[in-house]
Specification:
The complex is a heterotrimer of chains A (541), B (317) and C (203).
Chain A lengths: L1 H6 L9 H5 L4 H29 L10 H37 L7 H23 L13 H5 L4 H28 L12 H33 L12 H35 L6 H14 L15 H29 L8 H23 L2 H7 L3 H31 L5 H28 L13 H31 L44 H8 L1
Chain B lengths: L1 H4 L8 H34 L16 H28 L8 E8 L2 E5 L5 E3 L1 E5 L3 E8 L4 E5 L4 E5 L5 E6 L4 E7 L11 E7 L1 H10 L6 H11 L2 H5 L17 E3 L5 E3 L2 H9 L22 H13 L11
Parallel strand pairs in B: 1-5, 4-10
Antiparallel strand pairs in B: 1-2, 2-3, 5-8, 6-7, 6-9, 9-10, 11-12
Helix pairs in contact in B: 2-3, 5-8, 7-8
Chain C lengths: L1 H40 L1 H8 L4 H27 L2 H31 L15 H36 L9 H26 L3
Classes of the chains: A mainly alpha (541), B alpha+beta (317), C mainly alpha (203).
The structure holds heme-A (2 copies), dinuclear copper ion and copper (II) ion.
Dinuclear copper ion binds next to loops of chain B.
Amino acid sequence: MSEATAEVSYLEHGHSLKSWLLTTDHKRIAILYFLSITLFFFVGGAAAALIRIDLLTPEADLMSNEGYNRAFTLHGVIMVWFFLIPSIPNTFGNFLVPLMIGARDLAFPRLNLLSWYIYMVGGLFTIAVLVLGGVDTGWTFYTPLSSMFANGNVILAATAIFVVGFSSILTGLNFIVTVHRLRCPGMTWGRLPLFVWSIYATSLILVLATPVLSITLVLIAAERLFGIGVFNPALGGDPLLYQHLFWFYSHPAVYIMILPALGVISELVATAARKPVFGYRFVAGSSIAIAILGFLVWGHHMFVAGQSMYASAVFSFLSLAVAVPSGIKVYNWTATLYKGHIALDPPFLFAMSFIGLFVVGGMTGLILAMLAVDVHVHDTYFVVAHFHYIMVGGTVSAYFGALHYWWPKMMGRMLPLVWGRLSAIFIFLGFNLTFFPQFILGYLGMPRRYHVYPAEFQTLHVLSSAGASVLGLAYLLPFTYLLYSLRHGGKAPPNPWGATGLEWTVPSPPPQHNFHELPTVDGPPYQYPVEVDGEREAAHG
Amino acid sequence: MNRLLTFWAGQASHHAGQVDTLFLGLAVLAVLLSAPVFILITWFAVKYRRGKPADRTHAVNRNVWLEVSWAAIPFLATVAFYLWSTGLFIDLYQPPAEALAINAVGKQWMWKFQHPGGQAEINELHVPAGQAVVVTLASQDVIHSLFVPALRLKQDVVPGRYTRLWFRADAAGSYALVCAQFCGTDHAVMGGQLVVQTPADYARWLAAAGTDGSLAAQGAVLFRQMGCSGCHGAASTVHAPPLEGLYGRPVPLANGQVVTADDQYLRDSILLPQAQVAAGYPAIMPTYQNVLGEEDVLKLVAYIKSLANAQPGGGHE
Amino acid sequence: MADTAQARQRETTLMGMYLFLGSEIMLFGGLFAVALALRLMHPQEIVAASKHLHYGIGAANTVVLLTSSLAVALAVAAAEAGKIKGTVVGLQAGAGLGIGFLALKAVEYVSEYHERLLPALAPPEAFANPAAHLFMDLYLIATSLHAVHVTIGVGLLAGLALRVHHRSLALPRQATGVEVVGLYWHLVDVIWIFLYPVLYLVR
Ligand code: HEA
Ligand code: HEA
Ligand code: CUA
Ligand SMILES: [Cu+2]
């Protein structure tokens, strides 16, 4: 009896809608997240498309000032809270953490499902904001603009983010407890896959930083409804207090967005090179270091906001310190490749493009942390380019890398490698064409959040919009061939890439309860070589 | 190379040149620190392609000293730049004493400037070349940010407080002046020109621009109109502090603190009189929050500042 | 074997609760940061405004909450020992005292309303100065957010008491449920212990 059911994969186990909507299986919940996040990616992407079309000419031809302001606000809000923050943790984290540590599920499976429903309620609020005419404050909701002057649906938007915050908190809590309590025998902390380390560090931030955002949003709503005055100088409040609260959350939040990606890349690099990650301890520890240091640098968003000169000097210095653990990761990955057996499969191409773009984004972050330079480039396209390099070039590339790498495991189907390689290359090229010109624009003085601009800037804007269309199409590509592979792809063996890690020891797709018998681990992670070489060749034909 | 960066923004001050140099230095540093990564990854990907014969013996999995060094060396390199950049930044907080004082008010969606002589202009700022200028910034509504790319300078304008921006433009010409902080519907068109003129041209411009008397004189008029003199005037019977000689002096407060009577203090005394009550006086001064705009307040402040060297009871020393 | 599985389950649940409480602390932490900032900006006015609060009622409420915490702690101990009666009584006492807290709080709000101290209901002129108004706003937000937590806690305690009474929660096997709610209740108590001095005793 248990023999037979164990062989049924989680995908086959019930086909009714109910079996999906009421599932507590972490793998199915991962799929639910995957679908909903993809939807929001396209909504956010459509807003980006509108922005880039509008910026083709210096005049306002596609959208009015109000329309444009709403477009970039929704673009930012949706991309940050409804796509990027949940992207890797809630899909791949959900799917993989129990598999990687040898557990049957997360510690609180029902809470996990609840998180998804909360996420969807938040999402519905966002759609409501969109339908009711949008919101025009920027994703940063600076006061007093948001609290007293803006005329969009600020309260509804704040509610949406407030609600989705609960989903984040519960997800983070679930991961932390799972990693602490459900590791299989022999899976010591020193043997955890690096992806699990990074999800663990991310979860710490999710649990501790998100509530600060929640209370800040409550204050904004109260300010707007009742005029309580905490952020209103005329009533004795202080608008900068808002910025401190917001960035106290939002700077750590950028590490929520990058840490899971860093974890993914560690896995991809090790598998591609068939070597243990160089300096496992440093790479694992740097995730925790980033999570902790990340709480100390929020003031670098406020260098020209009127905070004290001394505060700025301190925040600038700490921002340099936070770059050190990121640097360790990058250099250690490079060292991992040395004398490896490198396969240029799609996941690795995405990893390479991640490393390149993350380094550019990170180094420009360092430049932004330099006070005298930031005074000039703050709130210009230089900043826009910086964060897209990290968030889109970095995290989204890692997300696609993870999608290609674990797709056979999740769906049980192989994907067309050639198309995978092509889309990695197109995304890389389209990305650079879109966002590199923005560094130059920014340094020349093009402010962000402008729908009209001086004619001198047009050439660079046109380049950027051209790049965005390449990028948009390149993003569509994987969705077509991945969908295609569901029907026509070859059946995936348990370990198509010849990787280490417990998730590769179970069938693809995994059975409902993951493991027949809980595994036991008796050695360090990433013990290459793995004896499955023939399989990959055979499977890919 | 510097030329390349200046085709639109222009370089209107010595500071701008220094920022460009710093930026180029940082760009070089960024290339130096990231080039090894780019080159090695590509090289390894080619050299150690799977299935390709290569010497793979003695591959190591860790080397603590190596790791510490590639954490420490880049960090130390950036610390050198940190010192350089922070030095430049601190200069921005130290305007020279003789700087020409200009007031600016940001409001949705325009900039209003006023010169010490009382000349007012909108979305355009005329300044003399070669002279230090310090702009005191106030906001009438939301946060704005005064940004002059050619000066490589910007400063947020925050409601409820004065911020400052100082510069010394060297090269005569017109430069873009914009709002960099998102401030609502027409944020993108809230801007104009910074016109840097030779001192002679500037003097001519000042003379041509109409004015109802100097800023301080306009403040003096308001001081009477708004009834301030009824309490603070020499003849007043109300127990209110004299404002002559107040500016720049330490003021003991009723709560025991001592603050310096700077621009911010004067502003708060007018708009939020209950916040900091001068010691020994009743807290009877009404607020002018809903009566006076930021521009009027700036005029009153200019007037009170002009009394800095006067004796209580009228008359200059 | 069954015992260790149960013990593991218990620790897992407790750990989840501790993390949740950590995030609750950060939630109120944001409010405390705002209170600190206001205090630094307007020391005098805040002290003056704080003097208008009924620190007697606040103190009484502190005692009520502390006692209820004690009752809940006893209930947890009884639950672990499998004593159904003791558990039910402890939980009921905790919930009852929680209701008492809410009642006192309501009395306080009403009297503040009559003294025209309650923001949103009183005109701005009723306050000595904007900072005092601001302080009362913060007072209202913080205490009502706390009251929401108390209400949830009362609901949880009462629900548990009912389930234990009807044996739908088997003791001591499922004592963890009681323990977890107990933790939550203690946190609600602890938050009040911080709110009380920050709001009432800054004088
Ligand atoms: C995933 C998101 C993400 C990440 C990971 C980062 C990472 C970093 N960010 Fe970025 N940032 C954003 C998203 C992100 N940022 C967003 C969204 C904004 C704008 C918000 C808004 O206003 O709307 C922003 C804005 C922003 C500013 C404010 C700009 C302004 O508004 O004026 C600053 C200033 O210091 C900054 C700095 C940094 C630094 C120092 C890092 C570091 O963590 C980077 C570390 C990485 C590296 C340095 C590269 C790899 C390292 C090496 C190759 C080794 C060699 C280097 C050394 C050790 C020195 N960021
Ligand atoms: C977090 C993730 C994230 C992601 C993934 C992106 C993705 C993109 N972003 Fe976004 N961006 C932000 C986060 C993100 N952004 C934030 C936080 C801001 C600041 C907002 C603010 O100022 O408040 C911002 C602001 C921002 C601006 C500045 C606006 C301004 O200041 O005036 C621009 C301008 O070029 C831009 C462009 C793009 C582009 C071209 C993409 C592309 O990568 C998107 C590519 C994807 C697609 C295009 C979707 C797939 C294709 C289709 C759906 C085709 C069909 C479309 C149509 C038929 C219309 N973004
Ligand atoms: Cu004013 Cu933007
Ligand atoms: Cu930051």
